[in-house]
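Hi everyone, sorry if this is the wrong subforum. Our group has a chain we'd like a structural model of before ordering constructs, and none of us has done structure prediction before. Sequence below.
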Amino acid sequence: MTCCPRARTSDGRARSRLGGMPERDHNPHRRRLHLPIVATNGAPTAVSTERKPPWLKVRLRSGPNHRELASIMRGSSLHTVCEEAMCPNIHECWEAREATFLILGDRCTRRCGFCDVMTAKPLPVEEDEPVRIAEAVRAMGLRFVVVTGVARDDLHDGGAAIWARTIRAIRDVVPGCGVEVLPSDFDGGERDIATVIEAEPDVFAHNLETVPRLHPRIRPAFGYERSLDVLRIAKRLRADQVTKSNLILGMGERRDEISVALRDLAGTRVDIVTIGQYLQPTSYHLPVDRWVTPDEFAEWKRVGESFGITHVEAGPLVRSSYHAGDQYRRAREAQAARV
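Answer:
Right subforum, don't worry. Here is the predicted structure as tokens:
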């Protein structure tokens, strides 16, 4: 989600300084978005030129684990949201041997104003992708893995069958491995959500992302109430299912609206909520409205947990999959304490 400097390889391709690997141009024909995204206050979008506050500065370090994981990803022809969404935590997570896989390709059928994953007509589904991901999890030595994916409105089930096969393939190849999944909303279809839940992921996540007023502009293909319904359905289908969601701050929301969104999430009985700072990836995306301070993030953690959410992870660089294994363990411990 963060904008990073670019260099060029010898053949002219962009190279990300986050990972030192060739990076594709998300919008080679300048057609990525049909209409320019505008600020929530109505101003034209532009890459923020305001200097980022010190708490958003990240030291970029590429160690042996990062290089090894990058090699495994390239060798398996897999995608990670760490790279596709340009996550600022990529070096920290990969050095800790944690990664978030992106399934169903790298082209999304929806367009959100904050997201750096490419919006385009998807390529055909790769039926062997679940097995390749499972083998990569084994090669990387992971004990807890996060799987997210692009929206696939072109598929009759939204890709639910691939989601379920991926969960089962990881468990077959790496018994005991924890699995968190972060799918789209499947257009609210209970049958497709059930297909994923029946594969018994340890965590079922679906991100709300923003407040009701901004939802239609920032997530035009999603619905605020529909996203809440996805979390409710997951709990109804499997009573002990750990559920999770995410909010992004700094996109034009008001303080009172954040409280409303947290209360609405608590109403779904969600177990985990992550809250982080929005960073504008490119000039084709929503501009940053404000920089949220670490003290304010700490306040929202207190507010969310006061509403009954088991664990709220909040901070400027927090992303949905950040410290996912630790979040799951805390949620399970809290559930056990309530019994």
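For your construct planning: Residues 1-38 have pLDDT under 50 and may be disordered. The domain at 59-338 is CATH 3.20.20.70 (TIM Barrel).
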